[in-house]
């Protein structure tokens, strides 16, 4: 279902934005594996929307991105990062959140994802979009 919705969003955005929609991506919440230790047992992953591709190839690429994200979520380093994050005192977390400037924008979005891509097939460049909520 997630893949079908992302493909539909890709189609709708490419129709709406026209030629300026050469590279689109979505930030998608994904459940973390294992026993939840908190109510927010998820992470956000970037999934390319591939508006320039035909429907069948677009769905395949989106499915591959989702599968790669799931594989990364199962990596032991993700669990280790969660355990390390859990040791940070709440006062320090609140301070860090207060330092975030939601109005600041980078001069240019990265052309490629900042994480290693686990696929042998060539990828087109994508830009990270802001969440819709």
Structure description:
The chain is an alpha+beta fold. It has one domain. Helix content is 41%, strand content 11%. The protein has helices spanning 2-17, 55-73, 76-86, 90-98; strands spanning 25-31, 42-48. The protein has a two-stranded antiparallel sheet with strand order 1-2. Helix 1 (2-17) crosses helix 2. The longest helix is centred in the middle third of the chain and has 19 residues, at 55-73. The two termini are 19 Å apart.
How large a portion of the residues is in β-strands, by DSSP E? 5-15%
- The strand count comes to 2
The SSE string, one letter per element, is HEEHHH
**How far is the first residue's CA from the last residue's CA?**
19 Å
Shape: flat
The Rg value, from CA coordinates, equals 17 Å
Per DSSP, the total helix count is: 4
Mean pLDDT: 81
User: In terms of per-residue confidence, which ranges show pLDDT below 50 for 5 or more consecutive residues?
Assistant: 118-133
Which structural category fits the helices and strands?
A: alpha+beta
Oligomer: single chain
Keywords: Signal
Keywords for this structure?
133 residues; alpha+beta; two-stranded antiparallel sheet; flat
């Amino acid at each position: 279902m997630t893949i079908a919705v992302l493909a539909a969003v890709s189609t709708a955005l490419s129709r709406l934005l026209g030629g300026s929609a050469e590279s689109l991506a979505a930030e998608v919440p994904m459940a973390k594996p294992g026993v939840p230790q908190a109510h927010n047992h998820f992470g956000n992953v970037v999934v390319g929307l591939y508006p320039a591709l035909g429907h069948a190839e677009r769905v395949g690429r989106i499915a591959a991105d989702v599968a790669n994200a799931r594989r990364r979520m199962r990596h032991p380093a993700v669990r280790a990062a969660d355990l390390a994050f859990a040791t940070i005192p709440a006062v320090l977390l609140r301070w860090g959140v207060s330092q975030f400037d939601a109005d600041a924008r980078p001069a240019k979005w990265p052309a490629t994802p900042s994480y290693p891509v686990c696929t042998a097939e060539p990828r087109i460049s994508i830009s990270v979009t802001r969440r819709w909520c």
